[in-house]
Write a structure and sequence with these properties.
Number of strands: 25
Helix content: 25-40%
Number of helices: 19
Radius of gyration: 24 Å
Structural class: alpha/beta
């Protein structure tokens, strides 16, 4: 008697083979049979016309704070994700010295655009100091999916070096020994790896690059030796130059950064994974980076670029970030509920005042503080955010082209769009919406040594909604794309199930094989889609975030427990913290 038999679906097993018709049986949290299943079950699920595949494994999220207040772990939960990895980009909340939470919040808020008020109020501060105590705290909680975490460089450097970490001093021999001990202890306690960021685009709310940005090669090699001593863990990094900036002690190029990561992999004997996207300033840089990866991996090293399946888009709406948010007249309305605010903004005299106002600058510097001015300057490169979202639009649909065709000022045109009768969203795609960008993404998806990550699922809550990437990659790259090639479903599924699980040593999941964990999605691909964006004010302290529901997930199972049915939460919470690498 099986717990469940998923009957008559098309199986995509995560291993890259062609889909085939068959059944999947689940018993005691594991996959008990795959193929033709004749045994009885407590519940049989009709999967006729649907695809049966492993649950998504998302290896680049930022749920480090959210795990304290949310057991759903949305938006990932709603997109068929069954395992997440957080602690990316060198930011996180452990280790944390007594009273040191403010500094770590300022780093996370600045880099990942998670409201500091939510992090102050929602996190159960005081429950840990060391990373080991942090993961013990996570073990007291249950979730709708499994949660793994990495050890963040900025937190380690801050814990060991204090103020010297903020001024980017070189680590002393004593500092390196202390950091190495923390790395070894944390990996032993269950950290899935160590993460760092070297892009100067990652800054605290005060505009300063985060600790670790300018770390010397010697420091990273010392971290690598500590990982070698522990014999476990992945080295995850955001390289300098990947978004057009330069960092590092000698302002290295991204190619030089990747060469250094190869040295870390060689020194540590561990896997290395890093962010790789098309740079607006150097659009062919990704090719030379992949060349380095191929040479390093041919040598026997393990370098895996994490890629996106669409350009990163910045979202704007009156209920989130927008170009008028610091205008003096608007600030007098900002406290109003959305409907009342929009009603006021539609009044001709209020519109005229806002359009002619000057901006009132924020006290703090940094990208997020100046986002309104960036959106104002780039208004012409924005596009209507329709449903379904079109990330390969014709240039004529941009607001710049529309305003020019109508003979109107671009800022007034944007104002009328954002304050229209419907609550509207727009997206800034800019140069990365070009056909060339999607050609680059297409080649990176096709490359056998890349993996799909970079959803930033718990981050940029009012700006970016790429947590829907697992769903989007099926609708766009498998089913709907018209401006270029599509991929076989087995290729896309493998990229974000088996490959990601294997990368982080989660060998008990990621494929539909007998004995593996029953982390399973049943997907109605013909009807799979994403709904309209919604702003929810459900973060601690009333903070807002953009969510986009998915439809077409018939069922999601985590460890053999049904967590979603017909796109609805069943209320089951079988997810637990992942402690380290898992045996097959």
């Amino acid at each position: 008697m099986y717990d469940y038999v998923i009957k008559g679906g098309t199986i995509v097993d995560g291993l890259g083979g062609e889909p085939y018709a068959g059944d999947v049986a689940i018993e005691d949290g594991n996959i008990a049979a795959v193929g033709k299943v004749s045994g009885r079950a407590r519940e049989q699920i009709d999967a006729d016309g649907a695809y049966v595949m492993p649950g998504w494994v998302d290896v680049h999220t930022h749920y480090d704070g959210q795990v304290s207040w949310d057991d759903r772990i949305d938006p990932s939960f709603s997109q068929g994700v069954t395992s997440v990895v957080m602690g990316n980009c060198g930011v996180g909340f452990a280790p944390c010295p007594p009273g040191g939470e403010v500094r770590l919040i300022e780093l996370m808020e600045g880099v990942e655009d998670i409201p500091g008020t939510a992090l102050h109020e929602g996190i159960e501060w005081g429950r840990w100091e060391t990373f080991s105590e942090y993961i013990d705290y996570l073990a007291t909680r249950s979730f709708a999916l499994d949660v793994g975490t990495q050890l963040p460089h900025s937190a380690v450097r801050n814990y060991v070096m204090g103020e010297r970490a903020l001024t980017h001093e070189d680590a002393t021999a004593e500092d390196l020994e202390a950091m190495g001990q923390i790395v070894r202890d944390s990996l032993e306690a269950g950290a899935l790896g160590f993460s760092t960021s070297r892009t100067v685009g990652h800054r605290s709310i005060w505009g300063e690059p985060i600790p670790g940005t300018f770390a010397e090669k010697a420091e990273l090699l010392a971290i690598g030796r500590a990982m070698k001593a522990a014999g476990k863990g992945v080295f995850q990094a955001v390289p300098a130059g990947v978004i057009g900036d330069l960092a590092g002690p000698e302002k290295w190029t991204t190619e030089q950064e990747i060469e250094m990561f190869a040295e870390v992999a060689r020194e540590s004997g561990r896997k290395c994974t890093f962010t790789l996207i098309q740079s607006a300033g150097n659009p062919d840089q990704w090719r030379s980076c992949l060349d380095i990866v191929e040479r390093a991996n041919a040598e026997g090293l393990s370098l895996t670029p994490q890629i996106t399946t669409r350009p990163i888009g910045l979202v704007t709406s009156i209920d989130s970030y927008h170009m008028f948010m610091r205008r003096r007249t608007y600030l007098g309305l900002a406290h109003l509920p959305l409907a009342a605010r929009l009603a006021e903004m539609r009044k001709p005299e209020v519109k005229a005042a806002i359009l002619h106002d000057e901006d009132v600058p924020l006290d703090q510097p940094g990208l997020m503080a100046n986002l309104y001015s960036i959106m104002a300057m780039a208004a012409g490169a924005m596009y209507p955010l329709e449903c379904p979202v079109n990330y390969e639009p014709d240039a004529s649909s941009s607001f710049g082209d529309q305003a020019e065709a109508a003979g109107r000022d671009i800022h007034e045109f944007m104002y009328d769009y954002l304050t229209g009768e419907a609550h509207r969203f727009a997206v800034l795609l800019g140069a990365l919406s070009s056909d060339n960008a999607f050609q680059a993404i297409e080649h990176m998806i096709e490359h056998p040594q890349t993996t799909i990550g970079l959803s930033d699922a718990g981050a940029h809550v009012n700006l970016i909604f790429d947590a829907v990437g697992p769903t989007y990659q099926l609708t766009h790259w498998v089913r709907d794309r018209t401006k270029g090639r599509r991929f076989p479903i087995e290729h896309i599924v493998t990229k974000q199930t088996h490959n990601n699980a294997k990368l982080f040593g989660l060998n008990d999941r990621g494929s539909l094989q007998v004995g593996k964990r029953a982390d399973v999605n049943v997907v109605d691909l013909a009807n799979l889609g994403l709904e309209q964006l919604q702003v929810h004010h459900d973060l601690p302290a009333g903070g807002g975030r953009i969510l986009q529901p998915a439809r077409g997930y018939v069922n999601t199972f985590v460890a053999g427990i049904k967590t979603r049915e017909r796109d609805q939460d069943t209320g089951a919470r079988p997810g637990r913290v992942i402690r380290g690498e898992r045996a097959p």
